[in-house]
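Justification of resources, computational component.

The compute hours requested in this renewal are based largely on the per-chain cost of generating structure records like the one below. Each record pairs the submitted sequence with a full structure-token output. That output is archived, and it is also reused by downstream analysis tasks.
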Amino acid sequence: LAFPALLRPVDVGKVSQTPPVPVMVPGAKRRPPALKLAVTLVIIAVAGGLLWQQAWVLGSLHAYQTAADFEDRDDLADAEAAYRNSIDLNPLNGLAHFGLSRVLYSTARPSEALKEIGLAERTYTDSHEEVLRGHVLNQLDRRAEALAAYRNALRLDPTLTSVQAEIDRFMEAR
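The structure output for this chain reads:
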């Protein structure tokens, strides 16, 4: 960064050899140097804390992407470990909780999957989360709640034809 005053040419011959006299604004209080130092240190600490937090969030996103890649390759054990790592780095990463819930559902652990869906919805909500909730509740033989989840998914995204078919199947079974 450059200050505009520094960009103007200066005639070296006209520069005074005497140091400038500090000017005090009338009515202004002089702050003690210790206070200035304390304020500066607080600002540096806050900025450092924000950078540290951002590093954890970025690490969590990287671990999430790694987990999603494992899941795409159907490597569910490594996907689960990577999703858990992502959640350890940032417990509010709703996408990581949702990804973990998909893996837990796929490995026939519906109770754990339902818990993760609940944690995911603190910061992430979409129709696919509700579809998964419906599948998990159906797997747990909680049919009325599953039907409500499917209907909610359809409310969030009316184009989900597979969900409408699932609702129709539920209605026929009654």
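The chain has a mean pLDDT of 83. The radius of gyration is 29 Å.
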